[in-house]
Amino acid sequence: MTDNDLKREVIKNVCLLQNYGYKVVIVHGGGPFIKQALLQAGIESEFIDGHRVTTPEALEHVETALKGQVNGSLVRLVNQLGYKAVGLSGKDGKIATAVKRMHMKTVDGHVEEHDLGRVGDVVSMDTDLLELLLDHEYIPVLACLAADVDSNEFNVNGDMFAGHLAGALKAELFLLLTDVDGLMRDKDDPSTLIPELSLADIPPLRQQQVIQGGMIPKLDACETALKNGAGSAVILNGTEPEQLLAVGKREPVGTTVVL
User: Fold this and answer.
1) Number of H helices, E strands in the chain
2) What pTM was computed for the model?
3) How is 19-36 classified by DSSP, letter by letter?
4) What pLDDT score does 137 carry?
5) Rounded to whole angstroms, how far apart are CA atoms 119 and 71?
6) How many Cβ atoms from other residues are within 10 Å of residue 51's Cβ?
7) Nearest Cα to 51, choosing from 118, 99, 142?
8) Do residues 212 and 187 make contact, with C-beta atoms less than 8 angstroms apart?
9) Which of 55-76 are b and which e, b meaning 16 or more Cβ less than 10 Å from the residue's Cβ?
10) Where are the domains of the chain?
11) Largest CA distance in the chain
């Protein structure tokens, strides 16, 4: 996302999936852009166990970074490539409904509840607007923002937002782009790539700490997508855009997660 040439190549190949007969929806986050926006606003970022605390003041800048900067640049790219993009967030058309998220932390055997501010968890998705756009060959581009039933607004983890949406759309394929080739038994050894696993394989891999760091929310998102109706999930290396075309041709690549 921070390398413009790579971003263009990734988006080009994502759009090309439409040529293989897929209806395409893009969901994005924007961590580096959020960090920069908060720095420029003089707002110090507080983290609890790696989770960013988002105050109402900070959320304004988060939304500006996600919707104004990142979403706008992706929409522009898709349109430049000859496709038709529509920039949205989960708030538009009440696509995503969320609830406030409280972070639970165990300290000395006791569970402590920590308030992360305007951070939410998706509880439901309404895909009517997206299906209307997809039926007319538009590519929706969604920022991971949502609101609750009282219109309180929240920032949502991008992986989890995408997982819920993939499930709600009953997507044939849920693709997660990261910066490695997939899930590896040894994160420093690409030859240990796990080409396929089922949901039943996930708990033991967690215990063995094969699933750690940034792979935790990605596997959580895969689980959410599959349990809610997606066909399969594939974790790909976004820094190798040709992997997207391999998926379009239905060639094995990355780590595929199935029920």
Assistant:
1) 9, 13
2) 0.95
3) GGT----EEE--HHHHHH
4) 96
5) 19
6) 15
7) 118
8) yes
9) eeebbebbbebbbebbbebbbe
10) 1-169, 170-259
11) 57
Q: Are 136 and 82 in contact (CB under 8 A)?
A: no
Q: Which CATH number fits domain 1-169: 3.40.309.10, 3.40.50.2300, 3.40.1160.10, 3.30.360.10?
A: 3.40.1160.10
pLDDT tens, per residue, the chain with 259 residues: 789 999 999 999 999 999 999 999 999 999 899 999 999 999 988 888 778 899 999 999 999 999 999 999 999 999 999 999 999 999 999 999 999 999 888 888 888 898 999 999 999 999 999 999 999 999 999 999 999 999 999 999 999 999 999 999 999 999 999 999 999 999 999 999 999 999 999 999 999 999 998 899 999 999 999 999 999 999 999 999 999 999 988 899 999 999 9
b/e sequence 125-143, b meaning 16+ C-beta within 10 Å: bebeebeebbeeebbbbbb
| Pairing between β-strand 51-53 and β-strand 46-48 as defined by DSSP bridges | antiparallel
Domain 170-259 has CATH 3.40.1160.10: yes
Contact 144, 156 (CB under 8 A): yes
> Cα separation of 62 and 200, whole Å?
36
Rounded to an integer, what distance in angstroms lies between the CA atom of residue 55 and that of residue 43? 10
Nearest-CA neighbor of 100 among 73, 119, 123?
119
**Comparing 1-169 with 170-259, is the CATH topology the same?**
yes
